[in-house]
């Protein structure tokens, strides 16, 4: 049994701890044998007396660090060093003592449990471990207990499961709980080691609280002019729950304004917004009373015993009076009038009144943007519509105008209504041919042969439809070579009356046809059908007529005419360009530069001094053209020939300015050395004044004698007014 030794951990003695003794049968006690120890901790933790074989532990051992040590022992001859027995293995087991307290897997646990849970509802489970040997004694046997958190929670001693211990824990009263759990070894007996942990438990919300209005009555005001959808006010019911359990839906359950107002829920604020559903009228109803209900959409059936999860409040809405515009008795008016109605004929009337209690008077007017021609007018006092111009149904069947009703005391309050006026038809248009009829008859035509079918149209629109009758004019009825056959369907046929026609005797017949309608008063018109006599083949097809053929007219098409016009225009443009090129005189420039003096205008921006400035220029030069120095040849072009400079003859002192300019123009046109046609020629000449005397009346008063203005009568009708004013002065004085 020497191969297993036991040793207590955590030895606290001052001497080495004795482990055991090794002994060999070969040991006779004479000191010839020597004991040797090897293996785990040999020579360090464990030492052996080589003479006696006693084994001792030199240090405190911890089972939790190493519970078992394996060593080997051998006895050898001290002198020879040879083993007297084979090497043997033995173990040293460290006996456990309760030197480790239980440790929880978490320092802090977090758990949740619904409020109002039943007793024994699972909350969480805690777990602790003990490093001591669970197979030796009770050092590692753990028992759980609750140190803090009673009477709300309990813990199972063996499993560490935490459960609710109190009924109807309400989150609204207390939401957070801190529970302290203890784990103790040695089976919970005295002397055992223990450890603790904290469990933070939160009660989660359930819908166990109904919504409640903070007040039973709400009161709001809104003007009667509020359009549908206008918010009037907000109401809010409070709910102690959280999240979706606190969602509230608002509804109007009863009241006078059930169909006049609506309530919607603001999802962010959980408020009920009262809005206008239909147009309000202060004059009809001034106060509305509603019953608004707030309820939870998410209800848990197990809490229905707590009562209905809804609440109601009374909402009073007072409608405020607003100055409203006049209201017409109809949304639209439709009137009718005959087109032969005289001016100022009354068509009908419109009616509007002020809906306010004041019943302010109303005046009527026509929106002239809808009646630009001012065909209709309205009596501003009673709303009667009458015509101001004659009507014509054929020009415009419907007249759509707008009538405006305005309060006299407050012109800003006005309203509009459409007025549709239909013009009724009167038989005031005669029927006429639907088109211009021109036909032919063959020379060999037989009697009663149909040569043309004619139709008529009428601008009028009788109620019973058109019924036209056709007949020859009275003056052509007797002795006519053709007859009219009325088909009774608003058409008629033209028939031959004899056999054979001669185009050489009569090439064209003009047949007057009278067209009458069947309405009252009867309207009729006369149309002319042109019938040409032509030569035909055996099938009755026209071959030739005395005049130009009707079926095959000669002429040019539109495309041909356009092509001819384009050719003429092209030819004219070519001729004009050629003539312009012939007239342009090309000259080789002497100055080849980008700054050709002919293509640039130099501006000096010098301002003259006026007539008093005699230093700026020589005024005598303008009065005496002979003083102008000799013209010089141009240096920018090559002259075609050298011409001697010629002196321009001076103009007479009394020469007219026009004659002077014409003379200078002629000289420049005929001068080959003159600048080209695109250069600027200056004809500086100052006239000597007009030979005519002044007509000013200011000078007239300075003369002693009377002046004769009779010559003004000879100047034509434009001076007739002056002649009347001044010509009769003498006669006035005489009289």
Describe the protein in words.
- This protein has 735 residues and is mainly beta.
- The protein is 9% helix and 33% strand.
- The protein has 7 helices and 41 strands.
- The termini are far apart.
- The C terminus is likely disordered.
Task: Give a concise summary.
This protein has seven helices and 41 strands. The radius of gyration is 66 Å and the shape is elongated.
Which CATH-level-2 architecture of one domain?
Sandwich
Q: What are the segments in which pLDDT stays under 50 over at least 5 consecutive residues?
A: 547-555, 586-599, 626-648, 701-705, 729-735
Shape, per Cα inertia axes = elongated
**Helix percentage range:** under 10%
- CATH H-level homologous superfamily name of one domain: Cadherins
The CATH topology of one domain turns out to be Immunoglobulin-like
* Beta-strand proportion: 25-35%
Q: Give the overall average pLDDT.
A: 82
The main sheet comes to: 5 strands, mixed
Structural class: mainly beta
The first-to-last residue Cα distance is 186 Å
- Output the number of helix runs: 7
CATH C-level class of one domain is: Mainly Beta
Quaternary state reads single chain
Q: What integer value in Å does the Rg equal?
A: 66 Å
Counted beta strands: 41
């Amino acid at each position: 049994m020497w191969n297993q030794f036991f040793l207590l951990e955590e030895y606290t003695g001052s001497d080495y701890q004795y482990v055991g003794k090794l002994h060999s049968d070969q040991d006779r006690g004479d000191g010839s044998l020597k004991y040797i120890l090897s293996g785990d901790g040999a020579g360090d933790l464990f030492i052996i007396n080589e003479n006696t074989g006693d084994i001792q532990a030199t240090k405190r051992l911890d089972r939790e660090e190493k519970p078992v040590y394996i060593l080997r022992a051998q006895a050898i001859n001290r002198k020879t060093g040879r083993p007297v027995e084979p090497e043997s293995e033995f173990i040293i087991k460290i006996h456990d003592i309760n030197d480790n307290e239980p440790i929880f897997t978490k320092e802090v646990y977090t758990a949740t449990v619904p409020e109002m849970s039943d007793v024994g509802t699972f909350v969480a489970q805690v777990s602790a471990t003990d490093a001591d040997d669970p197979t030796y004694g009770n050092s590692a046997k753990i028992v759980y207990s609750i140190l803090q958190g009673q009477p709300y929670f309990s813990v199972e001693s063996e499993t560490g499961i935490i459960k609710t211990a109190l009924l109807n824990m309400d989150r609204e009263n207390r939401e957070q709980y801190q529970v302290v759990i203890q784990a103790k070894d040695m089976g919970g007996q005295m002397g055992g080691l223990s450890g603790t942990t904290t469990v933070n438990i939160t009660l989660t919300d359930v819908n166990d609280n109904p919504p409640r209005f903070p007040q039973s009555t709400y009161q709001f005001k809104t003007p009667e002019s509020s359009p549908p959808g206008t918010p009037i006010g907000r109401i809010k019911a409070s709910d102690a729950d959280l999240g979706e359990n606190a969602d509230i839906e608002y509804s109007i359950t009863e009241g006078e304004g059930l169909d006049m107002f609506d309530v919607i829920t603001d999802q962010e604020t959980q408020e009920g917004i009262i809005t206008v559903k239909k147009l309000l009228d202060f004059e009809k109803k001034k106060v509305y009373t509603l019953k608004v209900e707030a309820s939870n959409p998410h209800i848990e059936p197990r809490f229905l015993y707590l009562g209905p999860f809804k609440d109601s409040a009374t909402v009073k809405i007072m409608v405020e009076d607003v100055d409203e515009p006049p209201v017409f008795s109809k949304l639209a008016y439709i009137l009718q009038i005959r087109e032969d109605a005289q001016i100022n004929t009354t068509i009908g009337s419109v009616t509007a009144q002020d809906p306010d209690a004041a019943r302010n008077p109303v005046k009527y007017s026509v929106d002239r943007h809808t009646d630009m021609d001012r065909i209709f007018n309205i009596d501003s006092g009673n709303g009667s519509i009458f015509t101001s111009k004659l009507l014509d149904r054929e020009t415009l069947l419907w007249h759509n105008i707008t009538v405006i009703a305005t309060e006299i005391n407050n012109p800003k309050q006005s309203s509009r209504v459409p007025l549709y006026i239909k013009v009724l038809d009167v038989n005031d248009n005669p029927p006429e041919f639907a088109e211009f009829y021109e036909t032919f008859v063959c020379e060999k035509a037989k009697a009663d042969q149909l040569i043309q079918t004619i139709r008529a149209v009428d601008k009028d629109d009788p109620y019973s439809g058109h019924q036209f009758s056709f007949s020859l004019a009275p003056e052509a009825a007797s002795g006519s070579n053709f007859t009219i056959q009325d088909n009774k369907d608003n058409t008629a046929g033209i028939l031959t009356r004899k056999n054979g026609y001669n185009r050489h005797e009569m090439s064209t017949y003009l047949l007057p046809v009278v067209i009458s309608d069947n309405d009252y008063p009867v309207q009729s018109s006369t149309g002319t059908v042109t019938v040409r006599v032509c030569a035909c083949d055996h099938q009755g097809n026209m071959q030739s007529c005395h005049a130009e053929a009707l079926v095959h007219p000669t002429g040019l098409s539109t495309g041909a005419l356009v092509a001819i016009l384009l050719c003429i225009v092209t030819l004219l443009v070519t001729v004009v360009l050629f003539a312009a090129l012939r007239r342009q005189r090309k000259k080789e420039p002497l100055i080849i530069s980008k700054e050709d003096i002919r293509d640039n205008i130099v501006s000096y921006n010098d301002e003259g001094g006026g007539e008093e400035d005699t230093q700026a220029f020589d005024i005598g030069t303008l009065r005496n053209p002979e003083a102008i120095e000799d013209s010089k040849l141009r240096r920018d072009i090559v002259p075609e020939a050298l011409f001697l400079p010629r002196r321009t003859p001076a103009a007479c002192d009394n020469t007219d300015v026009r004659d002077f300019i014409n003379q200078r123009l002629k000289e420049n046109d005929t001068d080959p050395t003159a600048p080209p046609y695109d250069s600027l020629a200056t004809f500086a000449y100052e006239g000597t004044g007009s030979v005519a005397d002044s007509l000013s009346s200011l000078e007239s008063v300075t003369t002693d004698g009377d002046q004769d203005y009779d010559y003004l009568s000879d100047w034509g009708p434009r001076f007739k007014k002056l002649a009347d004013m001044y010509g009769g002065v003498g006669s006035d004085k005489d009289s």
